[in-house]
Specification:
This protein is of the alpha+beta class and about 525 residues long. About 40% of the residues lie in helices and about 20% in strands. The protein contains 16 helices and 18 strands. Helix 6 packs parallel to helix 10 and helix 7 crosses helix 12.
């Protein structure tokens, strides 16, 4: 094996490597693209263009495995030249043969340790031109990367290959991530994530649903008018359009749930860094954002807060997905949560609706299924707003879409003052304090009920309330136990299990005092 360069895998590649080892036949790990070229393009030149991008991007001639020290490693091999099959057909067979070739290539498992992570077939017809069918493994490309490859193939065919800037390689990315500066950025991102998780609410939508009813509900709104309105409002308020969507969604979510605090997870594209615009072989990351809905807050003030949070997303999006998931799991266990506070927001920055393939939609919705909370997805390319919710946590997602439309309409009508738009929604959060309750994680809870339930634990003798700490849950207790082996984490898990029975409960900060 002629290895030209070896480097530790990027964080994104390591994530895909882990998934491939556990589920090598997963269709979600294979991406495809079908591109039509007219008959003026010579097939030989199209083959040369494919070879050009293969040499230009190391990720297309890379295999993966473990180094002698057991580290996930990418090996660049100059001798790795995948065959490009040329299939001549009659004019009326182009579509059918292209579909068959794509299905065949996606049906054959990739061996990431031995073969190139991309396959290509050219279906050619006498007068219909040529169809390039590409199938790539997700470890080496995402949909943006495939779009980039097609653009570079067309640039090569037009004679402009020399004008392309040098490509940023996955091995360069990996070296940067493993550098001292890269590790420091990752540590800062994880520290920031830990702070946000510690302050996040415990639940978005407390509630139950009959087991016979569908677990997940989803709804889509396709509206060019809504996106035109959003563009006008964003320009008038001088904010980034994704920030506007997130602000509107936060208003509706807060009003519907009664939460003053919403915790989002946002998908961050690696392409926010200009150096990485031309990379093939990297993936996006995830980062949390906490938005606070304070009493009397105006919509304009909320958008400013969202803009600040959006900048934090760019600033703190440098952690590995696997590290992030481990951190989130640890934080959830520490606070005794049951993943009831997750809202995923994904804004797709694509303007070409044709690039949205059915495969992408399947991948996207399959990925969203991992979130037990509520998923919010905005795609200006197809003018789609998509909401998917867990019936255990939320109501009909169609209600969210309709309410978002109403807020957006009120923002765009005439010269409406944006400060007054959300007044009705925010007023719902300014409810009078119910007797015997305290505000905890955006909900009114009864401390006496929390204390009574905790006292039902067989090892707990008594529970005292102490001053709250708004940096965490807002409710702190001191529990006296009669066993040395009972820890704070044991009691938090106990309260989390009881939350599933009574969504009005919370998991307080618990200090354990042993009485023996």
């Amino acid at each position: 094996m002629a290895v030209t360069r070896a480097e530790r895998m990027t964080w994104g590649q390591e994530e895909m490597w882990t998934l491939w080892q556990g589920y090598p036949a997963a269709p979600e790990l294979l991406l495809s693209r079908v591109e039509i070229f007219d008959s003026t393009v010579e097939v030989e030149n199209l083959v040369k263009a494919l070879d050009f991008v293969r040499w230009r991007h190391e990720g297309l001639r890379t295999v993966y495995g473990l180094s002698p020290r057991g580290e996930p490693t990418q090996y660049v091999r100059d001798d790795l030249v995948p065959a490009v099959e040329i299939v001549p057909v009659a004019d009326d067979e182009v579509e059918g043969e292209s579909a068959r070739q794509k299905a065949r290539m996606k049906g054959d498992l990739f061996s990431l340790t031995e073969e190139a992570p991309f396959r290509a077939v050219i279906v050619t017809a006498p007068t219909r031109g040529h169809v390039l069918v590409l199938v790539m493994h997700h470890i080496t490309a995402d949909h943006n990367a495939i779009q980039l490859l097609i653009a570079e193939i067309k640039e090569f065919l037009a004679g402009g290959a020399a004008r392309l800037p040098a490509a940023y390689q996955p091995t360069d990315m990996a070296a940067e991530e493993c550098s001292s500066a890269g590790r420091q950025r990752s540590e800062r991102s994880l520290e920031r994530a830990a702070q946000i998780f510690a302050q996040g609410p415990q639940a978005v939508f407390p509630g139950t649903v009959a087991s016979t009813e569908p677990r997940y509900l989803e709804a889509s709104l396709f509206s060019h008018r809504a996106f035109d309105h959003a563009d006008r409002v964003a320009q008038r308020m001088r904010i980034w359009q994704p920030s506007l969507w997130l602000a509107i969604f936060t208003v509706v979510l807060s009003a519907a749930s009664g939460q003053r605090r919403c915790l989002f997870e946002i998908i961050v594209s690696n392409r926010i860094d200009r150096r990485r615009l031309g990379i093939v072989g990297h993936l996006s990351s995830t980062t949390p954002v906490l938005l606070e809905m304070s009493a009397g807050q105006s919509f304009r003030e909320l958008t400013k807060e969202v803009v600040r949070a959006s900048l934090d997303v760019v600033k703190y999006g440098d952690s590995a997905r696997l590290q992030y998931w481990d951190l989130k799991d640890a934080q959830m266990r520490k606070r005794g949560l049951e993943y009831r506070n997750q809202v995923t927001f994904n804004y797709v920055q694509e303007s070409n609706a044709k690039s949205r393939s059915k495969a992408h939609r399947v991948i996207r919705r399959r990925a969203l299924a991992e979130c037990r909370g509520l998923d919010f997805y905005v795609d200006p390319g197809t003018s789609e707003i998509f909401v998917r919710s867990d019936r255990l946590l939320a109501g009909d997602p169609q209600d969210f879409l309709e309410e978002m439309e109403r807020v957006l309409e009120s923002l765009v009508e005439g010269d409406v003052n944006a400060d007054a738009v959300a007044a009705d929604h925010l007023a719902k959060l300014n409810l009078e304090k119910p007797p015997g309750t305290t505000m905890c994680d955006g909900n009114w809870v009864r401390p006496d009920l929390v204390r009574a339930v905790l006292c039902e634990h067989p090892a707990v003798g008594s529970v005292d309330l102490v001053d709250g700490d708004r940096r965490t849950s807002g409710l702190r207790v001191r529990a006296r136990v009669n066993r040395r082996d009972v820890t704070e984490e044991d009691l938090r898990r106990y309260m989390a299990s009881r939350m599933l029975e009574d969504p009005g409960l919370v998991v307080p900060d618990i200090a354990v005092v042993t009485d023996l």
